[in-house]
């Protein structure tokens, strides 16, 4: 299997996650708040669940099988409604998710189990979390790191920098082209900014692309101190923070 930084740079990512580009939402009910680690993008999670159609028909249950499922949150291994509904849960927590068809199995359904255009209801319990090998940060943490002189790499494309502006002092190194594949100049450009033992911050529009890169740089290249701005420059600007023209 090709890795993100191996030739021929075949791994691709979508520009942003579905959660950032749709007005359709998951109805999340907090049944019990956990006390353990928090589920974040690129964390490996262990989940028990039971799923029903809205008429009360149970179509699947890991609880009945006695075997929770494991997957990487944000990697597209489960339906989008789960990706959205599980984020922020703590180990030991329980939620009820009501997921519209657009974020579940859509017009095609799942033959033999889920009819077309079905809204689904899930009871989920977070059993375990293995955190990714990088650190997600918010705007206040970003400010503190910048004040210490930690370099910030903006991985968006030129048209995005021009549209929103950039944070002063950012290193502008495009990671993914319009097709979603890795730009070959990214790796040498990034290595010129930070060595594998150095602290470095990544930012994109909403935190999606930078989280993919943070994970790959940690796991595949060996960077030890990577920070990902989890809500991207969108939240930075929304909170009234300054940007400048690139």
Structure description:
GO terms for molecular function: peptidyl-prolyl cis-trans isomerase activity. Keywords: Isomerase, Rotamase. The protein has 246 residues and is of the alpha/beta class. The protein folds into 2 domains: 27-130, Chitinase A, domain 3; 135-239, Oxidized Rhodanese, domain 1 (3-Layer(aba) Sandwich), CATH 3.40.250.10. Helix content is 24%, strand content 24%. The chain has 8 helices and 11 strands. It has helices spanning 18-21, 62-65, 80-86, 139-147, 158-164, 186-193, 208-221, 232-238, and strands at 27-32, 44-53, 58-61, 69-72, 94-99, 120-130, 135-137, 152-154, 171-172, 199-203, 225-229. The radius of gyration is 19 Å and the shape is elongated. The protein starts with 17 loop residues before the first helix and ends in an 8-residue tail after the last helix.
How would you summarize the topology of this molecule?
Blueprint lengths: L17 H4 L5 E6 L11 E10 L4 E4 H4 L3 E4 L7 H7 L7 E6 L20 E11 L4 E3 L1 H9 L4 E3 L3 H7 L6 E2 L13 H8 L5 E5 L4 H14 L3 E5 L2 H7 L8
Parallel strand pairs: 7-11, 8-9, 8-10, 10-11
Antiparallel strand pairs: 1-5, 2-3, 2-4, 2-6, 5-6
CATH architecture of the largest domain: 3-Layer(aba) Sandwich
**If you average the pLDDT, what whole number results?**
89
Supply the CATH class of the largest domain. Answer: Alpha Beta
The CATH homologous superfamily of the largest domain is named: Rhodanese-like domain
Main sheet specs: 6 strands, antiparallel
| Uncertain ranges | 1-21
**Percent of residues in helices:** 10-25%
**Distinct helical segment count:** 8
CATH fold topology of the largest domain: Oxidized Rhodanese, domain 1
């Amino acid at each position: 299997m090709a890795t993100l930084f191996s030739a021929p740079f075949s791994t691709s990512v979508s520009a942003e996650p579905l959660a950032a580009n749709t007005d359709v939402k998951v109805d999340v009910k907090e049944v019990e708040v956990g006390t353990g680690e928090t589920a974040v993008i690129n964390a490996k999670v262990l989940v028990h669940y039971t799923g029903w159609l809205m008429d009360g028909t149970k179509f699947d249950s890991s609880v009945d099988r006695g075997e929770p499922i494991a997957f990487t949150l944000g990697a597209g291994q489960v339906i989008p409604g789960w990706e959205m509904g599980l984020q922020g849960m703590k180990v030991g927590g329980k939620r009820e998710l009501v997921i519209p068809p657009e974020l579940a199995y859509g017009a095609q359904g799942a033959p033999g189990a889920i009819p077309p255009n079905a809204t689904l209801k899930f009871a989920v319990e977070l059993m375990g979390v293995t955190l990714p090998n990088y650190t997600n940060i918010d705007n206040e943490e970003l400010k503190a790191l910048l004040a210490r002189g930690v370099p910030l790499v903006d991985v968006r494309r030129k048209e995005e920098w021009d549209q929103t502006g950039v944070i002063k002092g950012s290193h502008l190194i495009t990671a993914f082209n319009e097709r979603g594949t890795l730009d070959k100049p990214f790796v040498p450009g990034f290595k010129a900014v930070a060595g594998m033992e150095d602290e470095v911050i990544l930012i994109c529009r909403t935190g999606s692309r930078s989280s993919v890169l943070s994970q790959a740089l940690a796991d595949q290249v060996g960077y030890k101190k990577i920070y990902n701005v989890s809500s991207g420059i969108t939240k930075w600007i929304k909170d009234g923070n300054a940007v400048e023209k690139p």
